[in-house]
Amino acid sequence: MTADSVIRFARSTTGRLAMTYLGIIMLMSIGFSLVFYNTSAGQLGRQLPPSSVFNRPTSTFPGASPIADRAEVEAFLQQRITEGRDALRIRLLGLNVLALLGGGALSYMLARRTLKPIEEAMEAQSQFIGDASHELKTPLTAIKTSNEVALRKPKLSLPEAKEIIKQNTEDVSKLQALTDGLLRLVNNKDSDHSLKPLPLQEIAAEAMNQVVLLAQNKDISVNDQVPNIKVLGNQQSLTQSITILLDNAIKYSEPNTVITLSGSSNAKFGYLMVSDQGIGIRAADLPHIFKRFYRADRSRNKQQYDGYGLGLSIADKLVKQQQGEISVDSTPGHGATFTIKLPLA
Questions:
Q1: What distances in angstroms separate CA 108 from CA 103, 104, 112, 115, one per listed residue?
Q2: Between these two residues, 189 and 151, which has the higher pLDDT value?
Q3: Residues 36, 16: one domain?
């Protein structure tokens, strides 16, 4: 490792945080060593016997001689005390060197562990901004282009003007849908996430009412088989989650097919399943479909299906806020089944 690399590491966020952790570790280690040394050194000094010991005879028999000369005993004990203190200092110094080496490695690990979620959040934020900018660019470019073309025409007929206004209105509607989805993803601080016992059957029926026109427009029937069980959740969030799954099922289903809502429960959890007979999802896409702006077969879906890949991300976030989970099982060409798992009331 060169000097430049060491300097770069010391100036990096990881290096500064690691040195902060190491400073705390060494401050505690040195402080403990000083306290331990002072206490131990004081105990070693107590080995010197009091003066009365030197005047006491070595035996209780009459005429017995007293203990050896005091100066010799004190010199011997003082030498042993000094040796003990020196050995104690060497050992504490060794322990602090080990603390420095081990603390350095531990500090680096702690710094990386501390910074990892922050870096991931920053990366996700950067990716989110980039994806949102990309999605916003398409309708804005379309609006700008149509307006520029209209301005270049010396004579713009009324039907042409109405057509341009119609196209611009459609693009503005897309922008509004995109911004609404982004707001639902990032702005939930003031939302009510309190969980209450909810009848799953009634919530599913409410969600079905919100998509009935979409289903009718594609001649898709929705089969309600949800049992009468109660789960813990938030009514608005759960209704919105099921509505998103139904809308997604309708969007990717062929006309004259059936979407089935069903449910089940065990000792702890209740389950609601939304099954369709649509195009299905490839195995390679399954791990990513709940990511923001992700669309399977993007080149095909961009042309055939409206949306920005936000619906499933919003549903996943809403379900997690209710202490639940959402999963999917699908085979290409044989539809998909999305399952919402929530605690039983």
A1: 8, 6, 6, 10
A2: 151
A3: yes
